[in-house]
Amino acid sequence: MEKVILAYSGGINTTLAIHWLRHYRNLEVVTYAANLGFGEYFESLGERALAAGASGAHVDNLKNRFVKNYVLPSFKAGARYGSGYLLSSALSRPLIVERLVKLARETSANYIAHGCTGKGNDQLRFEASIAALAPDLQVIAPVREWPYRTPEERLTYARRNNIKIPNPDKHKRSVDGNLWGISIEAPCLEDLASPPPEDLFFITREPARAPAKPVHLKIAFKRGTPMALDGKEMDLPELVEALNQIGGRYGVGRVDVVEDRAVGIKTREVYEVPGATILYTAHQALQDIVLTRQMREFQAAVAMRYGQLIYDGFWFSPLREAFDAFVDVSQRQITGTVDVEVIPGACRVIGRESPYSLYDRRMASYTADDTFPHAAASGFAQIWSMEARLEAGRAKKSRKDSHSS
Ligand code: ARG
Asked: For the chain, what is the largest distance between any 2 Cα atoms, rounded to a whole number of angstroms?
């Protein structure tokens, strides 16, 4: 019997997929689940897969690998998508594929299967990553192929085949989470007029119930990488976890947006990214004093394009490597510390310093300390306005010409 490696989350779709692949595609199913720092059932995932008919089940802790190899490059680039998505789910897909391919090679499997729907972005990320790393492997997406569209139909399938599936929660949420952030989709979000109910969230408290007293944090960066919190050196996963706790308590990093999916539809998405939000804010503040204007403007353009590339599933591409090469240079001097104040629902920068800062107080000052060469500016301003002056003359001429014709 041929073998398929199934990306397994333990949810209803991937659990039914084990049975479906076995009985409708006649394949031996080996499951692979990745612990990326969110969720609690990882110990039982293996048993659950075997109970549903898998012949082998792997569960991997990839938290550190995820943060180091995927989150960090994206963070240093300032990558984002649309109205504030920090790409937490999108970043995890290429890593999962990296491991699925490895397992497929080790076990001589010819197929990889995933539980994505035909409407989402994740199918594209899985399949573009597989195409880049292992173009010979074939992909199967049971959820796109089987006829069970509604939760009821899937429950019937499970019952008829004696498959134990997890109980859906009250909101029927579809959740994808990791250390960097949590993505939440749910039927109650489909009405754009309704705010998300309070108990939809996992790690952020309602800002109205956050502590009233602000908290101050000092975040140290070295070459664009967050290194320490309040003077204590930490590796990045630990630091993100600490900031998730603090930010979560203050209700920081709730993102509620309408997003353009790659398949052409708009959908409502809710994200929880407390730690990432604090780090993005601090990182931007440090870049603002260190980068030249030209670098800062180009960095912003790269941030947008890099975000799009991650969103669209092209992590494994020459363009990403080229972006990383640029970011390596742009981050060379992003070293220093940023003071952040966390208040209910928000965070703001209250101090920043860097040995490589370009901020020169004597240049910026309007006090007696001012050393800026004011007189030289008149020649500069005159040349700067040259184009506008020439154009004004031309506009006058063309107005006259159009009157006389
Ligand atoms: N819209 C987000 C994205 O495309 C979140 C996807 C979350 N996936 C999920 N299975 N709930 O990255």
From this structure: 88
Spacing, Cα 210 to ligand 1 middle (Å)? 27
Please report, as a single letter, which amino acid is at residue 327: V
What CATH class does 3-177 carry? alpha beta
Helix (H, G, I), strand (E, B) or coil at 184: strand
Residues 6+ apart with CB under 8 A from 373: none
Q: How far is the CA of 265 from the centre of ligand 1 (A)?
A: 13
Those residues with Cβ within 8 angstroms of residue 203's Cβ, 6 or more apart along the chain or in another chain: 182, 244, 248, 272, 274
Q: How far apart are CA 313 and CA 143, in angstroms?
A: 19
Q: Which atom of ligand 1 is nearest to the CA of 271?
A: 5
Q: Which residues line ligand 1 (CB under 6 A)?
A: 89-90, 121-122, 174, 176, 183, 185, 259, 269
pLDDT tens, 359-379?
999 999 999 999 999 999 999
What CATH superfamily is the domain 180-353?
Answer: Argininosuccinate synthetase, chain A, domain 2 (3.90.1260.10)
- At 43 the pLDDT is 83
Helix, strand or coil, per DSSP, at residue 67? helix
Handedness of CA 11, 12, 13, 18 (dihedral sign): positive
| Mean pLDDT score, 184-205 | 97
**CB-neighbour burial class of residue 364 (10 A; exposed 0-12, middle 13-18, buried 19+):** exposed
Binned at pLDDT 50, 70 and 90, residue 40 comes out as: confident
Per-residue pLDDT of 117-137, as tens digits, reads: 999 999 999 999 999 999 999
CB 279 within 8 A of CB 342: no
CA atoms in the 13 A half-sphere facing the CB of 182: 20
Cα 179 to Cα 244: distance, rounded to the nearest angstrom:
8
- Please list, in sequence order, all residues whose beta carbon lies within 8 angstroms of the beta carbon of residue 376, skipping any fewer than 6 positions away: none
Nearest to residue 143, comparing CAs of 251, 12, 303, 302? Answer: 12
**Separation of 207 CA from ligand 1 center, angstroms?**
24
